[in-house]
Amino acid sequence: MALFAIGDLHLSLGDQFKPMDIFNGWDGYVEKLEQNWRSTVTSEDTVVLAGDTSWAMKLPNVFNDFEFINSLPGKKIILKGNHDYWWSTMAKMERFVEENHFDTISFLFNNCYSYGKYGICGTRGWVSIGDGTEDEKVQFREVQRLEVSIKAALDAGLEPVVFLHYPPVYGLNSNYDILDVLYRYGIKKCFYGHIHGYSQKNAITGMHDGVEYIMISSDYLKFAPYRVM
Q1: Average pLDDT across the chain, whole number
Q2: Contact 98, 105 (CB under 8 A)
Q3: Bridge-partner residues for 110, per DSSP?
Q4: Which of 96, 213, 217 is nearest to 226 (CA)?
Q5: 194 φ, ψ to 5°?
Q6: Residue 99's closest CA among 63, 54, 56?
Q7: Residue 155, class by beta-carbon neighbours within 10 Å (0-12 exposed, 13-18 middle, 19+ buried)?
């Protein structure tokens, strides 16, 4: 039994077709993903999908993408990304996967999941805060959700491991509110996606101020799930 992670699948297998093949390094990415996944992940494993899973705009339109994900080995835990416009309430998403028998898919949203002695925690996160009031509201909610998720793990006696979509540090920029949560709760590992292509040169990876950062954008991983532990 192993734990894997990968972000930014950017699937568009349904009606709203938006192929990523037009971008450098993304040619045949769905086939590469499936081949790498099936050669690495078993039915006993768990894979965290760190946001931007599907280009679908509404929950019903994600059916084909979820059908593909559900067909792959292992349990999948999905968190929200900035392009997951289909994301809805937990009740609606849970009802959707139940009604469609997508029994390997769960959602990380104001909660945590256990994996041995570890707690799988996380949320979307947000960009470095700007001057806009709307940004401040979103930032505040994301900080709250991260803290709720970490506390849920600690209350269950688990060691939190954090998964985000947005990187809390990137180049010379830092999201200090998110970082404050990581530091206060002694988080040792933080996985994130969102960054693609040329922008990956400014990504922070490895140890940084006591936290190990691991980038798991799918193109960075060459569309192969990363073994967390």
Answers
A1: 95
A2: no
A3: none
A4: 217
A5: 75, -35
A6: 63
A7: exposed
Q: Report the C-alpha gap between 169 and 6 in whole angstroms.
A: 18
Distance between CA 79 and CA 49 in Å, rounded? Answer: 6
Q: Whose CA is closest to 229, among 28, 3, 1, 62?
A: 3
Q: Exposure of 185 by Cβ count < 10 A (0-12 exposed, 13-18 middle, 19+ buried)?
A: middle
Q: How far apart are CA 121 and CA 127, in angstroms?
A: 19
CA torsion angle for 227, 47, 80, 193 (degrees, to 10)?
20
* Dihedral, CA of residue 30, residue 206, residue 171 and residue 148, to nearest 10: 80
Range of the domain at 181: 3-227
Measured CA to CA, the distance from residue 38 to residue 34 in angstroms comes to: 6
The pLDDT tens digits for 114-131 are 999 999 999 999 986 555
Residue 38: band (very low, low, confident or very high) from pLDDT cuts 50, 70, 90: very high
Number of domains in the chain: 1
Establish how many alpha carbons lie within 13 A of residue 132's alpha carbon, considering only the half-sphere containing its beta carbon.
Answer: 6
For the stretch 215-228, pLDDT in tens is 999 999 999 999 99
Domain holding 169: CATH number?
A: 3.60.21.10
